[in-house]
Amino acid sequence: MVAFIIRRLIQSLFVMFFVALVSFSMFQFIGDPVNQMVGVETSLKERAELRERLGLNDPIPVQFFNYITDAVQGDFGISYQQKRPVSQMLVERLPATLELSLISALFSLLVGIPMGVYTGLNRNGFLAKCFLTISLIGISLPTFLIGILLIFFFSVTLANLQPISIFGLFMLDPKIFQLPSFGRGTVVDLGWWTTGLLTVDGLKALIMPSITLGLFQLTLIMRLVRSEMLEVLRTDYIKFARARGLRNRAVNFGHALKNTMVPVITITGLQVGSIIAFAIITETVFQWPGMGQMFLQAVTNVDIPIMAAYLMLIAFFFVVINLIVDMLYYVVDPRLRIDTGKGSGHG
Amino acid sequence: MADQVDKSQGIVSAPVPKSGFLDMMRRFFDSDVWHSFKSSPITIFAGVITLIYFILAIFGPWIAPHDPFDLAGLSLMDSLLPPAWMEYGEARFPLGTDDQGRDLLSAIIYGSRVSLFIGFASVILAMVMGIALGLISGFVGGAVDAFIMRAAEIQLSFPSILIALLINGIIIGYFKTHPEWQVDQVTLAYFVLVLSIGLSNWVQYARTVRGSTLVERNKEYVQAAHVIGIHPIMIMWRHILPNVLGPVLVIATIQLALAIITEATLSFLGVGVPPTEPSLGTLIRVGNDYLFSGEWWITIFPGAALAILVLAVNLLGDWLRDALNPKLR
């Protein structure tokens, strides 16, 4: 187990090093940083001084080394466009993105797993077929289109509907279902973290973006759980459990569902990473003030420090998540612990 | 998915005798693939839809009622007209017009053309690159193999949209800071899109082809080719390549849907095709600004066109995967 973790750690470091190399070479490839930072009227002498101060006259390997040491300490340089430290800008926008990603991951798990179990158990049921058809459409609709459709329905159409009378008993105003289509709503500042989870406004603002972001993952998890359930339900120990006279509920959830969880954990872990990356699209559609939106602005403005820092941060998230998933494997699946050799089964 | 495809190598390896086109057609209509196509109504439906899109894309300029790029034919008086069946709609513009008075139906036909072109071009780029690297990786082995596969693994651990965005940003940035390159805006946008989508999707092909190559490399016919002194590049090209192409076709179909989505997404995010010659994604982006003022058709129709195209290609890809993979039957 320890050897495995160390090996994975070394691999992760290698990946981070490679990503840092890519980030660093962006600075070399695209334009002259000095030109980007100063105005037109800056004299050649001042430019030369700035160049010296930034260390741009050092040999490339030395520059790379300096870049990495700074990055490890959380210093990603200064944005060309906004003239502010990139790390500060990232920290400001991190809570919005992480909160959105977390909620949509939870949404896709809490809805996707039950749907997957249901479609696995009732293979030929009408509802199961409906779920599968919807999931196919969900995969074919690009994320941004789902977002636009949600906005169109919940923010535009509902706002234009007249109140309807329900059985003549009371009037239902469709506007109470109307959802905000941009921004985070009211956020509470906790000093180091801003959260929208504590206000009704903020929670309402979270609904549509997190559904948009989580829908693709939801279909993925649903299909995965379904096929795993079908696979597991065919095995002998399930037949044996039934033969023992266990109730359906115990067999389905106690025996079958438990064993479908290993691939679900893997995929979910990997998907959390792509949720953070796909947040770029959702944040643009809903004007969500997160990191993804900042990255996109940086791409259009050729703001290399932000692009490089975002890339490294995302890579870091991916690497950490992958490590956690690998370790969870060992926790969840006892068979893996035996396979590591030397009989260290209790590690 | 790549693993499923991996195992299916060697199934389309039946040599086609060079006895004319008619014979080939007869063999095709005799085959299992055609049979499974015929027996699945959904697949036939998806095939027809895809075919319609292809025809529209190829013959678009002759089919479309208006030329949306012809500035002289546009009139601001016609802007933001609703679809023909609604109040104020005009029969000249069946699906309404956008903010510049362009006929939306024509814009969608031209837009599908752009989307399909970029989709195809980037799939071909990714395919050529992936096949070449996969063949080299599997055939040469050793350090070259290790290097290519590590690079592939690192790239695979990031979503392709992120990599496409990054490559996109780098190339655009390069051209912005190097004004000595005099390039046309639209050509540049096409070039950047094809390159970024292609480069972000080569990994799947490379891994599949490498897997199949590793199997083929040790077979007797390859050893025989070695013995009679054929150049290794020739062995890769003439002997191994035809035997590893089956799974590649399946991946390419599925990747076409993905490439179209990626192009639309990049265009929607504003780093793709410029609004002067819009793709479906650009149309949706433009229309999105008018969603709140009630002009829903500018967004919804291109969106529906995109969704239907992707759904049809996806269905075809799913079917092809099952049809070429006997293990799943």
Jot down its keywords.
A: 347 residues, mainly alpha, two-stranded antiparallel ribbon, B: 329 residues, MetI-like fold, 13 helices, 70% helix, globular
Greatest interface by residues involved = A-B, 47 and 40 residues
The helix count of chain B comes to 13
What is the terminal-to-terminal distance of chain A? 6 Å
Give me the CATH fold name of chain B: MetI-like fold
**Uncertain ranges of chain B:** 1-11
Helix content of chain A: over 70%
Q: Mean pLDDT of chain B, rounded to whole units?
A: 80
**Average pLDDT across residues of chain A?**
81
Span from first to last CA of chain B? 16 Å
What number of structural domains do the residues of chain A give? 1
Number of strands of chain A: 4
Q: Can you tell me the CATH topology of chain A?
A: MetI-like fold
* CATH architecture call of chain B: Orthogonal Bundle
Structural class of chain B: mainly alpha
The geometry of chain B reads as globular
CATH H-level superfamily of chain A = MetI-like
> What is the total number of structural domains of chain B?
1
Q: How many β-strands of chain B, per DSSP?
A: 0
Describe this structure as you would to a colleague.
Chain A is an all-alpha fold. Chain A has a single domain, classed as Orthogonal Bundle (MetI-like fold), CATH 1.10.3720.10. Chain A has 14 helices and four strands. In chain A, the strands form two sheets. Chain A has a two-stranded antiparallel sheet. In chain A, helix 1 packs antiparallel against helix 13, helix 5 packs across helix 8 and helix 7 packs across helix 11. With 329 residues, chain B is mainly alpha-helical. Chain B has a single domain, classed as MetI-like (MetI-like fold), CATH 1.10.3720. Chain B has 13 helices and no strands. At the A-B interface, helix 1, helix 6, helix 7, helix 11 and helix 12 of A face helix 7, helix 11 and helix 13 of B.
